[in-house]
Every structure is written in C-alpha cells, then in structure tokens.
Specification:
Elements (H helix, E strand, L loop, with lengths): L4 H10 L14 H9 L7 H12 L5 E2 L10 E3 L4 E6 L19 H24 L3 E6 H20 L4 E7 L2 E5 L11
Parallel strand pairs: 3-4, 4-5
Antiparallel strand pairs: 1-2, 2-3, 5-6
Helix pairs in contact: 3-5
C-alpha cells in the first residue's frame, strides 16, 4: 500500500520538532465557520433535559429572562431561583473530561473562555446580591445522571439554600452549596 504524495505532505506538515503530531483541520475554513455558527447558546440538549425533568416534577419556570443578569436559562420567580445550565467547554469547566483547550489559537481560546468565566461569576454575584438563589448545572452532570441532577435540583428548589453547583466526577453527580468567591473560585 503506497502513501499518496498529499498524505505524505500532510503527515510531514503535521509533525513538529519533537516528532509529535498537531491536529490538522480536515475542514475548510468556510465549513468550520458554518459548523461553529450552528452551536446554540440556548435550548441545548442538557438544558432541555433539565427543563423536562423539572416540568414533570411540577416546577414552572420562565426561560432566558432578559431582565436578570446573565439571562439565566431557567427562572422560577416564586422561589427567587435562577438556574444556569453550562456547557463544559464554553464555560471552561475545570477538571472536566468534556473540557479541553483547543490546540489551535490557544491564546484566543484562553482569553475567550476567561471572559466567559468572568461574565458567569459577575452574573452569579449580581443575582445573589439582588436576593436571588442561583444554581449552576454543568453539562457533565446531566450526561452522567440526569435523574440525579433533577432530584438534587428539586430538593434545592424546595429548600432555602442560596447556591448550588452540580457537576460530575468520575461519572457521578456531585454538588456544592458553597458560592464561588475570591477565596473559593469555582469559576
């Protein structure tokens, strides 16, 4: 089996000085742009899953309320609760297997994701300062066990705890009730 000249060229081009391979994008810039433009900021599968579970459990909510800082994904005004469903990549979930910084243009991605995290932290702080309770649900938790996430969210909504964060560690849902601050930067 022979290697075509174009494959040999791609392999040589992808090899750096250490002999390791860099990711060569197999899509044209136009196709990559089209793919990236289809990534949604709302109505994602993890968000829809959480909405269905909460609705089934009798919770009624509003979606993407613009009047609140950060436009929470779900708002329960009667319970003064705001729920954000974060994608692990777009919100740079530390220690999560679904988050990996892209190797192409790392400076751009570091800055973009840093700004996203800062915006998330500011929105959470503003909501708490305004008397709202805030829950952060990470995509990895929904993927690991959506039913457990729904149960924990329902329990949190029925209580008076100010903050809840649900993520996954080793495919098990874990929660934290300690709000992020300068000493405990969850973000």
């Amino acid at each position: 089996m022979s290697i075509t000249p174009i494959v040999r060229w791609l392999c040589l081009r992808a090899t750096d000085k250490t002999g390791l391979y860099e990711m060569v994008d197999v899509m044209s810039a136009e196709k990559r742009s089209l793919l990236m433009s289809r990534i949604r900021g709302k109505d994602t599968m993890p968000e829809i899953t959480i909405r269905r579970i909460l609705w089934r459990d009798g919770f009624r909510y509003r979606l993407h309320t613009r009047a609140l800082p950060g436009r929470p994904d779900l708002v329960l005004p009667g319970r003064r609760a705001a729920i954000f469903v974060h994608g692990c990549f777009w919100h740079a979930h530390r220690g999560c297997s679904y988050f990996r910084l892209p190797k192409t243009r790392p400076e751009f991605w570091e800055e973009k994701l840093r700004r996203n995290r800062e915006r998330d932290k500011a929105a959470t702080r503003d909501l708490v300062d305004a008397g709202w309770r805030v829950a952060i649900v990470w995509e990895c938790a929904v993927r690991a066990d959506a039913a457990a996430v729904g149960y924990l969210l329902g329990a949190w909504l029925r209580q008076t705890a100010q903050y809840l964060e649900l993520g996954a560690v080793d495919h098990a849902v874990v929660g934290s009730s300690e709000a992020p601050n300068d000493h405990n930067p969850s973000y």
